[in-house]
Amino acid sequence: MDPMIVPAASGFLVAAAIGVAATVKLRRSRAALRILEAEREQLRADVAALTSELSERTQAEKAEATPMLPVCRFSDEGRFLSANQAFVDLFAAGDGDDIASNKVVLRLRLMVSKHMEQARAAEPGVLVTAGTVPSAEGQSAWQVQLAVDRDAEDGGSILALLLPETDSWTAPALDYAPAGIVFLGGDFKTIHANAAYRALVEGTGPGAADRGTLFVDLIDQEDREAAARFLEGASADGENIEVQLVDREGGDGIEVAVFCRSLKVGEGPDGATLVVYLIDIGRRRQLEAQVAQSQKMQAVGQLAGGVAHDFNNLLTAMNGYCDLLLARHRPGDQSFSDVMQVKQNANRAANLVRQLLAFSRQQTMIARVLDVTETVADLSHLLRRLIGENIVLKITHGRELAPIRVDQGQLEQVVINLVVNARDACPGGGKITMKTHDFVTQVPVRRGDDMMPAGRYVQLDVVDTGTGIEEKIIGRIFEPFFSTKEVGQGTGLGLSTVYGIVKQINGFISVESTVGEGTTFSVFLPAYEGKEALSRHGDGQMDGTESRKDLTGVETIMLVEDEDPVRLFGARALRNKGYKVIEARNGEAALQLLSDKSEEIDLLITDVVMPGMDGPTLVRKVREDRPDLRVICISGYSEDALRQRIEEDTNIHFLPKPFSLKQLAGTVKDVLHPL
Hints:
Largest sheet: 5 strands, antiparallel
Number of strands: 24
Distance between the termini: 184 Å
Radius of gyration: 47 Å
Strand content: 15-25%
Shape: elongated
Structural class: alpha+beta
């Protein structure tokens, strides 16, 4: 063998041996590494297991320290879904097989159905108090709080959480209270508020009742400082202040009365140091304004009635003496036109007085049973002439309307005044709609400021498409002499006359208006349920002057009137007709004259309102000795006022002032010689 080959072979063998050794060593290292990795994974698994066990033990300890509260889940339709074990243990003795028919579950279903919408509308995390359910004997009741489980798969199920009332500082009555109640902390920030409080302050801005809201920020700037001082001095003495809340839309906020008192620990929720009560006094203010307005209207009505009565006496004398002058100055006489001018202006004044009496509800009236449809239909031609050609008048009549008992002239005046008012509200033209229909109500309903009793009424609506009435003046439209027209274009008595007439016949009137769209006046007239026959249009409209041509007589008449001009005119007018007239200035003088039984008196004419003995008293005393004596009462007030004072004596006739010579003579003739 070549000596050079042997060393080479031995070197190759050594290298191979080294390579094999290295390979074996590498394989052993990899095996050891895999073992180490397996051990590490095992350690990780052990750590996870220990962590899980520790967590479970911690949760169990917490569960043992804090008992689980009973909870029921209901569907968004109010159907019972499930209950936790705490509920089953407490209310079903641990038996959950028939839990759906459990009486507490059934009671909870009713609460959920009743308060479901309120719970859905509540902010997330806000519980809605639904009521209470009883517990076992000797234990407190459970308060039911509702909330929507928005994290549930269906996103709308209702949770009913039951809290022991001993652990709850509030009660269902807190949310049911009509007054706003809010608990404040020492910094005057909201901790909890009831439903009434949330409703009161919702107009001040979003989140006004949320926890942490500063209470004084909800009060108007002008009242804020005073409110802060009031809260700082809170006590239990019942004092209060009145403030205005902020209005987020820039208008006038709600006026509220604020009461507050300090709280001790445990008297309210955690952190509460004050409880504040808010009462809405806006309605009280409105009622106070209505009472003041009613008193003002009553005072003005009494004044108007008194003034109208005095004017009627003057107008009776003016008209009477005009009639006496016209008897001597016939047409063609140069004084005739002058006397007629005086008489015509006196008649205009008489119409104005009638309006004043209508407002004061003392207007003379002759009530008859009427059909509203027929009366309105007869007026339609006159109404169309009054409104002009640029306004469309549409009249819709109801079917089978109940009859009413009113003075026809007054009813016509109501219709005419309302239509003329509607015409004036449509200066550029428009449409006026009149509708009549029956209105029946089984319960009292509010109409304007009045409560209308239950019953049957005939409703008359006058609707226009005019300019409408502003809200700030709509409460004054029935005041006498109040007018939005220019000076000289109206007396301001149109609507007040309507109001007075409607009230005098025990009716009601209301108004609804929208600026730029129009106004609706609704008149409600009580249906007549009596047996009096329905009068046809035009019946009974003639006085004695139209049905009789001979107004003379020879009987003896006693005329009692404290107003000298009226008495002198009446006595002269009757003497001119052939009657013998005995005059008396008051009731006492009349009784003294009548004490002479030798004087036969055929008719007594007396004023109703006189100083000393009034007319009704005089009539009663005279009737004691002369029970068959015929009587005519004259007055500037209504016949209703007379009837209230003469009780049930129906054999007394009435002549309203102002009256003309022919009306006086005709009435006397009718009473002495009935047709």
